[in-house]
Design brief:
- The structure holds two protein chains of two kinds.
- Chain A is mainly alpha-helical.
- Among the domains of chain A are: about 65-150, no CATH class; about 360-545.
- Chain A has 25 helices and no strands.
- Chain A has helices at about 1-5, 20-25, 30-35, 40-45, 50-65, 75-90, 110-125, 140-150, 155-165, 170-180, 185-195, 195-210, 215-225, 235-250, 260-280, 285-290, 310-325, 335-340, 360-380, 385-400, 410-420, 425-440, 450-475, 480-510, 520-545.
- In chain A, helix 22 runs antiparallel to helix 25 (about 520-545).
- Chain A is globular, with a radius of gyration of 25 Å.
- The longest helix of chain B is centred in the C-terminal third of the chain and has 32 residues, at about 475-505.
- Chain B contains 25 helices and no strands.
- Chain B is globular, with a radius of gyration of 24 Å.
- Chain B has one domain.
- Chain B is about 65% helix and about 0% strand.
- Classes of the chains: A mainly alpha, B mainly alpha.
- Chains A and B meet through helix 5, helix 10 and helix 23 of A and helix 1, helix 5 and helix 20 of B.
- Chain A: GO terms for molecular function: dolichyl pyrophosphate Glc1Man9GlcNAc2 alpha-1,3-glucosyltransferase activity.
- Chain A: Its main location: endoplasmic reticulum.
- Chain A: It comes from Wolfiporia cocos (strain MD-104) (Brown rot fungus).
Amino acid sequence: MQRTRATTPTSPSSRPFPISEPIHPEPIPEQEESKPEAKPSRWKYWPRLEPAEWDILIASTCLKLLLFPAYRSTDFEVHRNWLAITHSLPISQWYHDTTSEWTLDYPPFFAYFEKLLSVPAYLIDSRIVDLNNLNYDAWSVVAYQRTTVILTELVMGVALLRFTRGAADTSTQKIISASLFLHPGFLIVDHIHFQYNGFMFGILLWSILMARNDNKLASGFLFAVLLNFKHIYMYLAPAYFIYLLRSFCLSPSGALLPMRFVSLANAVIAVFLVSLGPFLLMGQLPQLLARLFPFTRGLNHAYWAPNVWALVTAADRVLLQFVKGGRIQSMAVNASGVASTSRGLVGDTVFAVLPNVKPIHTFVITIAFQTIYLVKLWRAPTYKSFLTALTLCGYTSFMFGWHVHEKAILLVLVPLSLLAAENHAYFRTFMIASVAGIFSLFPLLFTPAETLVKVVYSVIWAIFVFAPLHRRVYEFPRSLPFVIIDSVEKLYLAGFPLLQLFVTLFPIATQHSASMEFLPLLLTSVYCAVGLVWAFARLSVIYLKQQY
Amino acid sequence: MHRHGCKQWVAPCALLAALWVRWAIGLGSYSGQDTPPMFGDYEAQRHWMELTIHLPPRQWYTYDLQYWGLDYPPLTAYVSWLCGIVGAWIDPSWFALDASRGIESEGSKVYLRSTVLFFDALVYLPALWLFVRTWLADRSARTQESAFLLLLFQPSLLLIDFGHFQYNSVMLVGFTLLALNFFETGRDLLGASCFVLSLGFKQMALYFAPAIGSYLLGKCLYLGPAQGTRLFLRLAIVTTLSVLLLFLPFLPPFAPLPTILDPITRIFPFARGLFEDKVANFWCASDVLLKWRRRLSAPALMRLSTLLTALGFLPGAAGLIYGGWRMRIVGVAEESQKPAPTLALLPYALLTSSMSFFLFSFQVHEKTILLPLLPLTLLLSGASAGEGSETFELGMLVSNVAVFSMWPLLKRDGLGVPYIALTLLWNRLAGYNPFRACPNSMLQYVSLLVHAASLGLHVLELLFSPPARYPDLFPVLNVLLSTPVFALTWLWSIRRGMQVGWALGGPSSRTKDSKPAAATEKSARHDDKIQGGHAQAGMRMTSLGYAQGRRRHVPRNGRSASISSAVSGTSQGGFERS
């Protein structure tokens, strides 16, 4: 829609609505949806909300408001401390301050963002931005910080809204947009645990939207901005790089288009200059980078993120039991490994039986897998192909990365959601990955009061997303292997209620013996890892076989 | 939702969402949190669990009355006992006698919240669903579902039960609603015993008693001498037995006779004065000018208030009895299995009676507005999607004013944010916006005015602290704003009761062949006027669906459709345009 409009030179307000129609052979979907009385020129720039969209916005805001007093992780204090740092210290001190143990370790744009937020915070309650007022948790700061999460998440809301305008299949896109806006991942991580993912994924989605609308310069610019908000999005950078290079900077025949290349390069460099420039001038770049990339952590996080390494670590524990039991003599046991992983505590993971994994190994595996997808993307640089490659890039990093956090699964689920209704294969992959991914976020909230909140919300979300999408894309499995796969997958999904039941009841049943308290976490991690690895394999195969 | 072929998911999802919202409210603070030494209602309920599991029944109503002595009827005590037993099994320290006073551990809070949710899900939610299925049985599935949604999210009840902490959904709405459902299906005995349970849970259910009693009496009259007398006797026996059963542990074989006096004196505290806090009723509002307590003695005031209350509920009760008598029939055997035609009057009579108690009786709390809200919400849910209908407009206005009238209490409990969130959610669910561009009836002007005034009051309270001379300035203004609306509702309920009664008793009221009558009724629904609706067959419509007479012509902005979609997140009900 926007593309076609942009090519018409007449001023939008003077252009009567029906005239633009014969120009395009395909029907324009928005026309059906736009209100007859609305002037067509207005909503194009300022999308109007339809009643159902208002419903979603109001209902979700009300639900989020109810979660104000819910459990908060230390990330809440982390962000409060950053408000204090950026408000009370000069910029030269931001990345040096160590008053609190929660030092600033996000890129500069996020620091600027916090600086911006700290201004109203100071007006509301000056104690919020007091650097030495550690662990401040008065109602004012809780309400303020929670409100900023809700408000900044609207960036994502707007991006998703614009996805629905001009989508090929508007009603399906509406379901997908709504599913993302109401994603349990955001509810758990942002509105309870406390982070600003909604805001940053909003920028990511906006960048993807620009790619869809063939405005690749803006797409690259926005992604550069995003990288300077949170560097974890580097997981996705290879796909962006290849896509923009191939489809924007090179002509279809492979010739370099210098103007485009230079403009894109300039845009990206400008963003980085604005972000890093001040620190470059102050000579603080090494300090900043040291904060952003602390290479001192172990392979697994405290709670194993459900990736390949969780499975490997679990296999190691199982093998250790066998070795201890004397059933396998040939393997040597690494003594320090016996104690290391038993509780899954923070620190370097040392395997007892299997060979140890070093950062360089994970790095090489990740790059190797990503290269496969990027070659495919280079050959087929379409939007859909880009979206899948983007998902797979994030997915590979999540699967094989060093010290991956379980929250990083959102990097996979968000772009994957945009693909959910492509066909049944994509949908099934999306379903498995979403269920396993969201379930793997549950341990973030370990307090009993929040158990009901996260489980019931996720169930409602799942019904409202899976049921209509399933009806749209369902295909009958066509051969015996597919039937078997289909049934096994269903069986796997059916296991989740049982797992939740076990996780809930196990601590009650074993109140008095503390020796097995890690079991529910371990089981959750391994069970989710199985599903996520399987979904990864599925998506890889689908992508590589797909003809674009 | 319906568009996407997910019809079968609507009701379960609504239920799940309702549970979620209830629990999420519970994450917040409760009445009396962190306020030793007395704490609040939360501690009272917990304390009752503690004392019932540790003491024999005869001491329940006498043990250390200064510290939250039990002052609810025995069913509350039994429920507390059950909760206490289970809780003590999980963690005995939550309910240790005396030692656990004021305990505020995370675990005990989660447990107590979960008991409210459990009883709500056990009694209230099924009762709501039954109500929608029986009273609105002849309405479309969609209307039933939107009514159900609306009933599920009544903000006042949610805030008091799950925020402030009480078990009202069991008492007033739960058992009373069940009683209504049984009346609708003609099972009067079950209904009566349900109402006794309701009374036995919280004496406040007495507010409904005149209406319920007159309905049953009216039905006895309606059935004629033979059948009526039989029903009357049966009702008397069942009711007495239920009451006896409830008070069994306090009666002779189990306890000496004087023991029965303990619960009775605790339940009816006549010695506590006309009113305590600021509450939006007649006494408190007029006290600003008239200073009742200086002019009259306490006994005189009590007599006066009793008289006014009785006068207040008389129209409703009389309408039921007189209606039953006027339409009496003689000796049709299966009639006692059906509801009396006066059932259509019952919601209005309940509203009249409970509102008159709220306005005029003794010792009313601001939370008591929940009782008049029950019949009003029921009426509202039947009229829900109709824009411009009187029931809908008034129902939404009163519902909003009711939650507004509890604001001082909610503010004290630290429930400001849920208050905003739930009120907003409820109005969106109902598709109600008092600030619409052009009000086109008197009522809409009034509601615009009231809403603007209450918003203004909130803003003022936020910006300015009250002057030192009048520390209660804002609560008093709140009372002065809310009381007229409640009084208006009371008058409205009397008027509507008379209208519906007149419509029932119209010329064709005796026609027993219900088929043609029903047909006329159905067609009449599509007309703009339905005055003088015909027969018993359509009585539910004349009552709950009267407002639907002005059948919604699917508002262009799709409000009606969006109701079922508000929680859906994926729906596009809003696009349904005809």
